[in-house]
Specification:
By secondary structure, the chain is of the alpha+beta class. It is built from 14 helices and 39 strands. The strands form seven sheets. Strands 6, 7, 8, 9, 11, 12, 14, 15, 19 and 20 form a ten-stranded antiparallel sheet that branches. A nine-stranded parallel sheet has the order 29-28-27-26-23-22-21-31-30. Helix 7 packs parallel to helix 8. The radius of gyration is 27 Å and the shape is globular. The relative contact order is 0.09.
Amino acid sequence: MITYHEQERIFKLDTPNTSYLIGIVDEENFIGHIYYGKRLKDADASYLLRTEEPPFVPGKNNRERCSFYDCFPFEYPAGGIGDCREGCLGIRTAGGHTGAMLSYVSHEILEGKPELTGLPATFGTKKECTTLKLLCEDKYAGMQVELLYTVFQDTDAMTRSVKVTNVGREHFYLTKVFSASLDMDNRDFDMISLHGSWARERHIQRKTLGYGIQNVSSVRGESSHQDHPFLALVGKNTTQDSGEVYAMNFVYSGNFRAQAEVTQFDYVRMSMGIHPENFCWKLEAGESFQAPEVVMLYTDKGLDAMTNAFHTLYRKHLIRGEYRNKKRPILINNWEATYFDFDTEKLLSIAKEASKLGIEMLVMDDGWFGKRNNDDCALGDWQVNEEKLKGGLKYLVDEVNRLGMKFGIWFEPEMISPDSNLYREHPDWALAIPGRPAAQARQQFVLDLSRKEVVDHVYEMVASVLRSANIEYVKWDMNRPLADIGSIALPADRQGEICHRYMLAVYEMQSRLVKEFPHLLLENCSGGGARFDPGMLYYSPQIWCSDDADAIERLEIQEGTALLYPLSTMGAHVSDCPNHVVGRVTPFETRGIVALAGTFGYELDVTRIPEEDRNMIPEQVALYHQYNDLIREGDYYRIASYSQNHKFDCWQVVSENKEESLVTFVQVLCRANFKSRRLLLKGLAEDKRYEVRFVNDKEIQTKVYSGDTLMKAGLLIPSFQGDFQARLIHLVKCEEKF
């Protein structure tokens, strides 16, 4: 609900449990942030703006205007005229001048949520959400800024975005456009962010927030393996179950910066948006620039509440398409099974064995096109190699379909190999700085997707392959960062637009893809998890979580990912052993249990694994079909963290009606001479009784406990012999009386 209190000049935005207050002050209509926190009954909290104490507002004390600018809690701060904190909006006029300040002009309160042209964004019906559109201006710069806020009926997450319009007569340049800012008092916060690298993405980091600017960012042209477009400020005593959390997540897949600045007055400015490095967007008179969306969240109930609010928003208001609420087919991918060494016969041998075991889809990975027998060549030549695939692609797909299986295929449409027909024909289609040799990564260049002819050509190549056979799944990969950011198609004063234009082009291609092929299951990938972000989830309901599918490595990766994203979005497979990344050997059963926390599939040669392992696959398939609805749709709770205790991991999923739950426990290291572990479960109904069954350990007797007992007294997990052991515990409401 959004209301405007005209007498007080205050906007009040209410979610089910929070309130967000914006105030208009002084004759110059400064827009101030008043409050964000637990839901309030009243709106008049304008005293929090501190305008009745020095330096006062300029209307009362113009001689200290700079001091006012430097401490006022601006709702959307610009910069260059007195506010020395880092602002959200930077411009440079045609005359080379900088500096801006916004004032309120008008507003609209809308039912529903407008789309953001060309960008992924959350959505909702008129009954599901309400939107505030605040129109601001800097009349000296000839600039109007539209601040957009949306609140939803079914989650405490809210969204913000910004659109800048040139209403003057001359062009100007946007040098920075962040999408959200939050000014508030510092309360001795910690800062939580997600960090990593290839094969170890999204590890959780928590540290004390100090004076100055602390940020996480990416200038790699992707949201990146190394950092993540997420930031949370939490109280010192905030845990999974209690305490304050302020969080932001960016619905964008390119360069970003998320930061918190603590000032000399112990104020905090938290902000997020497109990274300003190498960003400069020319706005001609009458043109607009739409910035991506930020998801914001406050809770006083700890990290689990934050997680479930994000999960609800993304499941119901971001993910789209046929597979939004649908069980995904169990797939087997041939990458770790064969790498480039495969042909039709080999793929069909894998498919035949997999189909007998209940696997539902064969995915053909890299190596099926051009002269691609290694990763040194042929990216861009998206024509089927019929020397490798005898009889052609349609023959292979038809044969797989005759086995009762679906067929999927891998692409890397954004890249081009120097050794490719496409590059030989169009060397200028690769990003490059004139006169400077472009740097290769994985022996490939990046296509200049800021050019429409390149985008159209690449899309048509991909689409023509999909039209040629019954292909029902696409894995869309991107295996290197952007570098040598230059385009011969853009003038000098528009070179700073390339990275954002590139990202808009990726969104356009994927939008065209899912529109032309509405029944396609699209899975995004970027060398594993370098573009696992809300922007990609708008086009694909799942993303390959990491190229490291080792069950133990995946514990930290999937914990960090599930902090924000529903389990249904995490591409997770049972991989080969010794693991191809870390060389670890883990039990096949444990690999299956960890992979069940995601989309579930296999990444191995099913014809060559030990018979004992192969015989477990039908049982794992059965577990997936039994529990996937619960895992996909249930509320997620973190019970214990291997990343913190270095011994074991545990998470829980509870159905919305609280009648069923699944607990996953992984004993990473066995302890000598210890008793059982006591785990306090979460999310159950206190007044219900649950039958508790250890699914994969028939020696442990099934028992009945009350939800009250399981959450307050806990459940005992026996100490198992050996490292890397995993157990599934299934709880079902029973009719047994107290």
